[in-house]
Amino acid sequence: MNTTRWTSAAHILLRIVAGLLLLHHGGQKLFGWFGGLGPGITVRPLSEMGIAGILEFYGGAALLLGFLTRPVAFLLSGEMAVAYFTAHQPHGTWPIQNHGELAALYCFIFLFFAASGAGGVSVDSLLHRRASNPDRSMPSHGSRVVPAHH
């Protein structure tokens, strides 16, 4: 396997794993998955944490599938930056001090996907291939349709 194939595989795996992990954070907030925020505690959907949960759950699912990757990743990168500066940075200058490492890392991972796209194995890739290669059974502009002889 050459370097390009390894890089492509790592790109796809990073997207899938980051999407899955973020989806879990959203599920934890919205549905109480993995112990939630405490026994029986979930967030109100239109609260700040609820909106974060919605972005994380549905954005994580979109990234996992590689669907609308660039705009979703850009939105999620912004969400993680807001999370870092509102929830973590007031408690210390450095991420290691304020426990904001995960938010900072997610922010830059999502910024990477906003810039680079989903990679090869994705809904985005499938949609791009379909748009680039329309059904050849339909005549193209300038083609002549020859009637069949009976």
What is this structure's SSE topology?
Layout: H1 3-31, H2 48-65, H3 69-88, H4 95-98, H5 101-116, H6 123-132
Sheet with most strands: none
Q: How widely separated are the two ends? A: 55 Å
Please give the count of helices.
6
Mean pLDDT across all amino acids: 89
Total domain count:
1
Low-pLDDT ranges? 142-147
Q: Summarize the amount of helix as a percent range.
A: 55-70%
Account of the protein in words:
- This protein has 150 residues and is mostly helical.
- The chain is globular and about 50 Å long.
- It is built from six helices and no strands.
Short description:
By secondary structure, the protein is mostly helical. The chain has 6 helices and no strands.
Entry keywords:
150 residues; mainly alpha
